[in-house]
Amino acid sequence: MTSTNIPKAFPLNLPEGDAELLLDELQTRLREGRRLVAEVGQILAEIESRGVRDLYGHNSIAVFYEHVARVPRAEAQRVTGRALALNSRRARDGTSIDPVAPLTGTSATTGALAEASIDRIVTVMKKLPEHVTASARLEAEKGLVELACVARPRDVTVAGTDLLAQLNPDGNPKDDPAPNHQRSQFWLRQKRTGRWDMRGDLDPETGARLNALLVPRAYPAPGGEADDRAPAERRGDAFAEIVDLAEAGPDIPMPRQTSERAPEQPQPAEPGEGPASRPTSTQARPQGRQGPHRGGGVREGTAAEGSRNVAHIRPPRWWARLSRPRSGNATQPQKPLTA
């Protein structure tokens, strides 16, 4: 079934070929639409005065308008910012807040100004220095409003730039921002395959020192023998060598201990086992460049010995307190902690 609600080609009942009448109707609709937009701004300013959180539960007038008008956040911020700049409102303590551009707000209620021109006038008025008198501000705004009624927004921008050059030739002083001190960051996690994934963001000094340690150890194997390792694999082997050297150092720092320590129960010494049979952490380890090997290979003595030496430097986790043995019970072996 064909619908009979087909709109006409031109809904207005205007005579054919009258160009002046079409232009007049267009300008009338534009003024009416801009006037309604200005009234919307007045309503938004009044809502801000009464408290948008108390009335509707939103944290800001921009978020409220975004949900009510169903517009993007950027457009909501532009509309509400324009409304607060053109209309006077009351603060939460009852004091009156004057508009940034009062003459522009008055002209906007007549529908004579476009939104783009209003934004350019407000930008210029905000940049005027404090030493400019009130009469000079009104005179400058009056000139921009008169121009915006007959000119394009780009012409208003040029006139506003010239006005700022006359009233504020030195420009607004900019405070030197404090240097942003960014700390180094490092992430290390174990994947399901058992391998470890690491990434970090180091400061220039720490990154340069790490690079100085990696570069000489990541060279291909000397002596002309074939080294089929990729550059990333050579760097991985070099990093593993640096970890071995750091772990074998006698001055390796001990981990921070929690305030609550479990009571250590003395273990009876097994017969035939003396102090000399225990490996010491400060025992000298063979140093030097290891032979080329693939990522899947394991160096002899490294995995077993490394697991014993790394266990005491892993920081405690919150669940370590849950597995701590209670007094009177036998000591239970704790889970290995991961970094």
Give a verbal description of the structure.
α1 crosses α4 (about 75-85), α6 packs antiparallel against α7 (about 135-150) and α7 runs antiparallel to α8 (about 155-165). It contains eleven helices and four strands, in the order ααααββααααββααα. It starts with 18 loop residues before the first helix and ends in a 29-residue tail after the last helix. It is elongated, with a radius of gyration of 37 Å. Helix content is about 45%, strand content about 5%. It is mainly alpha-helical and about 350 residues long. The longest helix has about 30 residues, at about 20-50.
Summarize the structure.
Helices cover 45% and strands 5% of the residues. With 339 residues, it is mostly helical. β1 and β2 (96-97) form a beta hairpin.
List unreliable stretches of 5+ residues. Answer: 273-300
Spatial strand sequence of the major β-sheet: 1-2
The total count of strands amounts to: 4
Portion of residues in beta strands equals under 5%
Specify Rg, calculated over alpha carbons: 37 Å
Helix count from the secondary structure assignment: 11
Layout of strands and helices, then pairs:
Elements: H1 19-50, H2 52-56, H3 61-69, H4 73-86, E1 89-90, E2 96-97, H5 102-108, H6 115-127, H7 134-148, H8 153-167, E3 185-190, E4 196-201, H9 204-217, H10 231-248, H11 302-310
Antiparallel strand pairs: 1-2, 3-4
Helix pairs in contact: 1-4, 3-4, 6-7, 6-8, 7-8, 9-10
